[in-house]
């Protein structure tokens, strides 16, 4: 059984984000493994271990797409417990939107021989769109199970998840291969110890370029031609009189045709 976990090298949420004037993209110099990615890693490891792990022929592969430094996300996943890593790196793919990202990751998965289950976080900590899991599933022609608060394998041919639907719990089962997104409620990720960190140095990270994957020219994104920092917020007006404040809000709503 091959579990492929998608990981992302995302800007640290504790730091301010800004645009690199040279690349006109988000500056990722101070980035880390997206924290939410630790949950699908843990889910994959738990399922692999339940089946017998690497000794029984099962493996967890951490896959990322991004610039050279993005390999650090894969290395962190290896420290947590992934068996090996794959890094799709190509300048032409920098700044890819969700459609291009899904195409690139799908091509990378095909290049390494496919996957029985692809696991992702519920979203990345930078984009936070949650669009990649369904986009990837559509690209690969696979079923997608999203927002899992529990994930398990009732047998080696199926994956089962539990979703929280506004307080009601929905159980969904799909035949493998499939794409599954895992929420931060699904598990408690393990913390890599010293032995795991040292062992990760011996694990293999495979680097793929455009020549190693099958992508059409239409799937390669155009470069960013213009980007500017978000303008500074201007100070608002404080009303100490309640009635005056209400009237001011109503005036704005009427002006914006929201009433």
TrEMBL record:
CDD domains: ETF_beta. Residues 23-217 form the Electron transfer flavoprotein alpha/beta-subunit N-terminal domain. Heterodimer of an alpha and a beta subunit. The electron transfer flavoprotein serves as a specific electron acceptor for other dehydrogenases. It transfers the electrons to the main respiratory chain via ETF-ubiquinone oxidoreductase (ETF dehydrogenase). Belongs to the ETF beta-subunit/FixA family. Keywords: Electron transport, Transport. This is Electron transfer flavoprotein subunit beta. Pfam families: ETF (PF01012). InterPro entries: ETF_a/b_N, ETF_b, ETF_beta_N, Rossmann-like_a/b/a_fold. The keyword Electron transport applies. Its cofactor is FAD. SUPFAM superfamilies: Adenine nucleotide alpha hydrolases-like (SSF52402). It comes from Micrococcoides hystricis. The keyword Ion transport does not apply. It comes from the Bacteria.
